Amino acid sequence: MPLGVYKMNQIISWLEPYKKTDEVDMSIFREYDTNTNDLPIGTGRLQWDIEKFIQFEKEFDEINKIFKADILRKCRELIDTYTLASIEGSEAKEE
Asked: What is the rounded end-to-end Cα distance, in angstroms, of the chain?
C-alpha cells in the first residue's frame, strides 16, 4: 500500500487543474504518507537487515490497519468522481 499511496500523491498533483473546490478531499493520502514517512518503501527495504525489515513490516501493518479502509473508499470515490466528470465532459464536447 505505501507505493500505491506514493503514486496517488503524484496523481493528485496531476488532477489539480481539473479539481473543483467542492470535489473529493484527498488529504487521506497525505495523512498516510506522513505516518509512514520514516519507513522505507519499495525495493530499498530489501537492503535492510532482515530483523529491521520485519520490524518495518510490523509498523506498516499497524498503519495499514488504520488507513486501509478509508484509502480504498477514497480511491473508489475518486474513480467515480473523475469517471463521471470525464463522461460528462465528453458529452458536452459532442453537443
From this structure: 41
